[in-house]
Specification:
heterodimer; A: about 500 residues; alpha/beta; Amidase signature (AS) enzymes; eleven-stranded mixed β-sheet; 16 helices; B: about 100 residues; mainly alpha; Histone, subunit A; two-stranded antiparallel ribbon; 2 strands; ATP binding (chain A); EC 6.3.5.7 (chain A); ATP-binding (chain A); ligase (chain A); glutaminyl-tRNA synthase (glutamine-hydrolyzing) activity (chain A)
Chain lengths: ~500, ~100
């Protein structure tokens, strides 16, 4: 197996065993990025020098016989451009932050560095994480490695595409309404939204603070678990950080890989099927559920009626929080400034800058949020959305009283064509139909690939949801399913991505 | 069903400090109307007896030790500023905007 096609766990074993150097591994991935990223556009910035220096540090430890910094020391990673990192630009996919360098590291970034993980660069995303296709990036769309005319999901399409194009074995995403899981589904990769509060938001440029959560992205369940344990944990710099032990997700992934799910109760969410769901997606989902049954799981149907209102509640809560969070882009302390020619006052400069620096989707959401929070409309919109949030949590509580995990398709369709939904915001929003409830309730949820759709040969994702701080439950189920899927489908799905050489 | 006029969108843009163009107003007015009609469905099930949830994990009174930590310092803080002068942020005039 070539270095770029290896899993993170395999690479770590080879590096720590002295079989291959971390510098060679980093260089192989940098070379891959040079040869294919022109056609993918997964990376907004590649930090060649920083990556090689971080890799050399790990090689020095190995050569000196010192213990390596973590089980992932020396493994390369692609960082979503919404997490700040010193020495690299942070743009959030926006013109308003073009060329801006953070003066400090996000906690996630710091934890990665301390673990000896080699950060290759920053990945493309929908502007300020608002979108489901990465088409809202000010730096051009990212292309899906399975079909370059199609979207890689969003907002973390750069991270998912980097994994599927074998440009990196690990990536970090952030998930506010599905931005880790939906890109995972449409690229055939694994993506996890941990329990809200388990990964620090310090240094994560805020979109919707009560929903934003960073998480691991990888090509296998075990790799995601290994990365999860590197980035998760209490942080006193995030007042919503949970002060509790990180769930044992690596042990759960290893246990699951033994392929036995006896005694596990799996609930199928009845709301997530029917109209609007692509037949090939539903067929793949049903086959996955059957596989879980064969692994020994007991499968029951579970109704969560308020989930039908999750999408409207989300598109009030997220824009409301965004309109407040993005007020910080005022052209005064950092970022773009337009019209500062002596003839315009501060407010005019602010308005001209925000007009020039923000894209259409960001402006739409700021205005929706401004509307939903304005007096006279607050109760009908924002207030009602917060009540729906309560109902969704109650549905989850009732479901988890009878089942260990819930499952659904991750997103209703396979990857759509670039441009297909960009003029129709509501059609775009529906990509997040199945992922949003777990953001509103704060519980853990993940995508694991379930195969290719019979309609169009594109990847389909299985979503597994677990109660808050029970992240390990879904890792166990996902790992067991992954083994069974590979056995049934004749090998890992990801190895079937079309060759990209020479694009 | 609510609906939102072009003038209301222009008002929102002013409140949000967005100097939108006339073309954008035409586009956004239609789109915001569709989006707001769709999301108003939350009113269907949000009855008076349901308490609101503002946060997935309710935490109150989160404190940490009051320990002095080094701050970024002037040079690093100003490094990303659009304009700086005499070791400070330089900003456009803020008075004379009553219009």
């Amino acid at each position: 197996m070539s270095l770029i096609r290896s899993t993170a766990a395999e690479l770590a074993a080879k590096i720590h065993g002295g079989e291959v150097s971390a510098v060679e591994v980093a260089q192989a991935h940098l070379d891959r990025i040079s040869s294919v990223d022109k056609g993918i556009n997964a990376f907004l910035h590649v930090d060649t020098e920083g990556a090689l220096a971080a890799a050399k540090q790990v090689d020095d430890d190995v050569a000196a016989g010192r213990p390596v910094a973590s089980p992932l020391a020396g493994v390369p990673l692609a960082l979503k451009d919404v997490l700040v990192a010193e020495g690299m630009p942070t743009t959030c996919g926006s013109k308003i932050l073009e060329g801006w360098h953070s003066p400090y590291d996000a906690t996630v970034t710091r934890r990665l560095r301390e673990a000896g993980v080699v950060i290759l660069g920053k990945t493309n995303m929908d502007e300020f994480a608002m979108g489901s296709s990465t088409e809202n990036s000010a730096y051009g769309p990212t292309h899906n490695p399975w079909d370059l005319d199609r979207i890689p999901g969003g907002s973390g399409g750069g991270s998912s595409a980097a994994l599927a194009a074998f440009e990196a074995p690990l990536a970090i995403g952030t998930d506010t309404g599905g931005s880790i899981r939906q890109p995972g589904a449409v690229t055939g990769t694994v993506g996890v939204k941990p329990t809200y509060g388990s990964v620090s938001r310090y240094g994560l440029v805020a979109f919707s603070s009560s929903l934003d959560q960073a998480g691991p992205c990888a090509r296998t369940v075990l790799d995601a678990a290994l990365l999860h344990e590197v980035i998760a944990g209490y942080d006193d710099r995030d007042s919503t950080s949970i002060n509790a032990p990180v769930p044992p997700v690596v042990a759960a992934a290893r246990e699951g890989a033994s392929g036995d799910l006896s005694g596990v109760r799996v609930g199928v969410v009845t709301q997530f099927s029917g109209e609007g769901y692509q037949p090939g997606v539903l067929a793949s989902f049903e086959a996955a559920v059957e596989q879980l049954r064969q692994l020994g799981a007991e499968v029951v149907q579970v109704s969560c009626p308020s989930f039908d209102y999750a999408l409207p509640a989300y598109y009030l809560i997220a824009p409301s929080e965004a309109s407040s969070n993005l007020a910080r882009f005022d052209a005064m302390r950092y970022g773009l400034r337009v019209g500062d020619d002596g003839s315009h006052g501060a407010e005019e400069v602010m308005s001209l800058t925000r007009e020039a620096g923000f894209g259409a989707e960001v402006k739409r959401r700021i205005m929706i949020g401004t509307y939903a929070l304005s007096s006279g409309y607050y109760d009908a919109y924002y207030g009602s959305a917060q009540k729906v949030r309560t109902l969704i949590s109650r549905d989850f509580d009732a479901a988890f009283a009878t089942v260990d995990v819930l499952v659904s398709p991750t997103t209703p369709t396979t990857a759509f064509k670039i441009g297909e939904r960009s003029g129709d915001p509501m059609a775009m929003y529906k990509a997040d139909l199945c992922t949003i409830p777990s953001n509103l309730a704060g519980n853990a949820a993940m995508n694991v690939p379930s195969g290719l759709s019979a309609d169009d040969g594109l990847p389909v994702g299985l979503q597994i949801m677990a109660p808050p701080l029970q992240d390990h439950r879904m890792y166990r189920v996902a790992a067991a399913y992954e083994v069974a899927r590979d056995a049934a489908q004749g090998g890992p799905l990801i190895q079937r991505v079309p060759q990209l050489e020479g694009i | 069903m609510p609906s939102i006029s072009r003038d209301e969108v222009a008002h929102l843009a002013r409140l949000a400090r967005l100097a939108v163009t006339d073309d954008e107003l035409d586009l956004f007015a239609g789109q915001l109307d569709v989006i707001l009609q769709s999301v108003s469905a939350v009113g269907d099930i949000a009855t008076a007896d349901i308490p609101p949830t503002s946060h997935a994990v309710p935490l109150t009174n989160v404190f940490r030790e009051d320990v002095v930590r080094p701050s970024l310092g002037q040079a690093k803080t100003l490094a990303g500023a659009p304009a700086a002068e005499d070791g400070r942020f330089r900003v456009p005039r803020i008075l004379g905007e009553e219009a």
